[in-house]
Design the sequence.
């Protein structure tokens, strides 16, 4: 039986939208980012800094995550920040650095797009577009992403139900683009000791309802660097198709989210540990 | 003492951003929508259909809410819908109808803008731009709205804290536009008997922290037509500067949100009842 | 039409349990606490300190809340505290003080019972038993309260749905005791600027589904002394049958919850303001 | 380094209470239930029916979970049910059956106690007392459990923060009983596709803050039989010291929670799969 499918009939109290719905016996969709295939038995790791901050920071980190086994690089050029007074990203200069580092390392990259007017520009540079949590229900942006024929990493809104998450993906598929990866990144609850509550049950639920691959982001999901390894292992055990993690060459100096970024040795050790868990559940990484 | 200020020092566990912050002794900002002043002792009612559906529907409803005492008309031309298969609004044709009905009735109108590319267009027609819950953290949209010099009705995200709500408003003020009205419209909780949980405590909290006027939307806040009058009265009693309510000439036939729309006689009766509560708290409507 | 009933059919996604359910045309149950009737057109105010701390504190506060118009006194003798190291209440000595102060002032009193083994003891002293939020689903305690034939004030659990709240009350009625008052006191949400989120929509919802009277506790509901008056006014406007509020003769010195207790002048002023709102909605206080 | 400890300093926004707090370098507490040690490198599985329903049901299920590798039996004799009209458990007759089945199988058992008046009785029969979610803040019950010198399985309230959970455990330790196991069983959030949201991040958080062992209950945590295996694997990967799972010999006929109970073949297969994950993280089961 294919990975992720479920023998027991699933009953949910909502209608799963047509195009994202997994039909009986349907295989998972494979999403291709550069040469990397997402949705197969190999678990894919996306790693890199929260934001592109400088050439040195980006190149150092990219080389290191590649060495550790990451297959896709992440890095924000346009950053959605709660406050207008915080670092908003390097913009197109950041995209240029990402392109350069891809040329050197061979790693394809994913980066966030926040504005319908930027989709064309970002799609010119990036191998995969990210639509962030705060924009999960930004319908014009979803439609633009659906029209641009690049793979899309769609993050779950921090208070979005599974139903709303699937409907948001349907907006993209409905424009003819089925290269969509869903990413759970923590939901907002009453608990405050973690930044968010990482909802790992979203993985089996989504895998049963939709043919789209499902990722976990334990960095945003916990907001705690020391907790990322434990939750990453759990994500692999629960059946995620991949992980998205923040790694920084100097977390203490990061302009953004350093408190939840792994340093390079931590990332390398974690990749070794994840390999064992992957094997235990019949997958590789 | 001016309405909304608070004698007891407020302690919150976050920093209130500079431009939205109410300084000691500072008056509330007056926001002017057409000839209507928001933020004074008179409570302002915005009413109308969820979406513009037809000339007949819009004109009938507009005349009726004006008769009832509404001072501003609402009506969506571009609609954010969870599902891509639901009615998405009439677009620019809807804006044209709204302009026509303003010419006839004299009611200024507010309508939602969802896309940075539409801000200029919508601002040409509308007297006030609405930024909806799902876009409360759509930062490029907030910036565009801040640059366009029309008053903005900013709705609280269904998962946004008071701090994030104020930071979102700060994005608009930071572009030089201080004509912003904050609107609480229900937050998402575990409770499912109502569509959302209307957080009326947001009114005294926001009134104490910021100089911006604060509205309540009891239609979205409850999702239940029969409950709107009770919550509207509570909103006036708690100190809201205004109300935004959905009214439809035939709620049973509405293309959108009919289950939470008042019919015309209900709206007229409610306005009479609200007048009494307003008087009891030293205001008028 | 009787206060609280609703013309429009209510649809909820659960079964309202038999004995608490309001049948078509059924009047609200009147609950009698000493000589005080709850559930009629007059709004009843329960006021007093969080905990009984001393003779002086209790007598001073009781006299003052009586002067202000409170009809029932509150005061905890057995206190549920999150930490085992905090003041746990005066126990039976506190009950004795409450009895004495009733003899002097004529005010009946409500006090919390936490343990099935104490129900008989507390019922000997008190005019009304309170079952607190943390015990809303303590079924043996609910059954004991149902058997003891004293009126019961049942507080909503901080994360209890309306359905669960009604089922908890059904446990009491099912033992033959229909003298139950429901009290909304704030639910737990993601918002942290208030202690809880006071769910005022629970009032019209409960009034429509059940014949039991419904109270609001704005002290616990907000956790903020300065916000109590605004929310109390809203509670009256929304249709609550009564209010429960913490008042202390020296809030700054209270052993428990002083930060949410009104002082005596604040309480007196509030009662005057509430009278106006009550009149505006056709009731008295 | 001992399992569960954390190299990076943990910052939480609350004070960890004295007796449950893990001091620097402190080992995990070992909790002994019959001959079974909890808190070591071997992961302990507690399995059995939600409620004791009959001799046949209990004996069949107990033999089967023992064969599968469970070390402790679970089964409720006194059941906390939301509705007074649902099966409330077999009471002392259920306790007698549990004692008999222990005599036959050698499996020690845990069963819930809900009432201070029952603690002595239940402690006479059971090897471990369970305090359920709804009673996590039933302080008299916590104190009684603290005085009775039997190990206690304390389940997290569905609305309880990590801080409140630790404070509840402190009530037990403060009476001199340190044989306490903490069990995360799902918290209440806005998401409704699962019964609760299983908060696996509670495991590393609790393991870092306290020396007490930490269990996961994926049955209540998801409310979905088909999802239990995936979440159980994740629980082992994240570092839980044990699992508590509902198993029934005929889930379709269960009087209680059948929809979340594994049948016997599912349980046996799961135990094999869990063994592989345990090995991958350096533990056994």
Sequence:
């Amino acid at each position: 039986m294919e990975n992720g499918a479920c023998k027991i009939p699933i009953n949910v109290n909502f209608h799963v939208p047509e195009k994202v719905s997994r039909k009986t016996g349907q295989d998972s969709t494979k999403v291709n980012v550069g040469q990397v295939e997402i949705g197969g038995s190999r678990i894919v790791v996306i790693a890199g800094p929260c934001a592109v901050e400088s050439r040195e920071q980006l190149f150092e980190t990219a080389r290191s995550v590649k060495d550790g086994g990451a297959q896709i690089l992440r890095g924000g050029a346009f950053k959605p920040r709660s406050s207008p007074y915080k670092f908003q990203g390097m913009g197109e200069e950041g995209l240029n650095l990402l392109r350069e580092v891809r040329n050197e390392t061979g790693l394809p990259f994913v980066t966030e797009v926040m504005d319908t007017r930027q989709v064309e520009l970002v799609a010119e540079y990036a191998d995969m577009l990210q639509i962030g949590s705060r924009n999960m229900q930004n319908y014009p942006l979803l439609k633009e992403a659906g029209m641009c024929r690049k793979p899309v990493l769609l993050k779950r809104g921090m208070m979005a139900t599974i139903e709303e998450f699937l409907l948001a993906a349907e907006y993209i598929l409905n424009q003819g683009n089925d290269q969509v990866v869903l990413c759970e990144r923590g939901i907002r609850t009453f608990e405050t000791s973690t930044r968010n509550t990482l909802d790992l049950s979203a993985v089996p639920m989504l895998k049963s309802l939709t043919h789209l691959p499902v990722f976990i982001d334990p960095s945003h999901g916990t907001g705690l660097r020391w907790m990322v390894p434990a939750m990453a292992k759990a994500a692999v055990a629960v059946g995620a198709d991949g992980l998205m993690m923040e790694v920084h060459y100097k977390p203490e100096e990061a302009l953004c989210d350093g408190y939840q970024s792994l340093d390079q040795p931590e990332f390398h050790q974690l990749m070794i540990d994840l390999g064992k868990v992957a094997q235990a559940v019949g997958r590789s990484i």
Notes: Chain A touches chain C at residues 159, 188-190, 192 (CB under 8 Å). Chain A has nine helices and ten strands. The CA atoms of residues 14 and 145 of chain A lie 25 Å apart. Confidence is low (pLDDT under 50) at residues 1-7 of chain A.
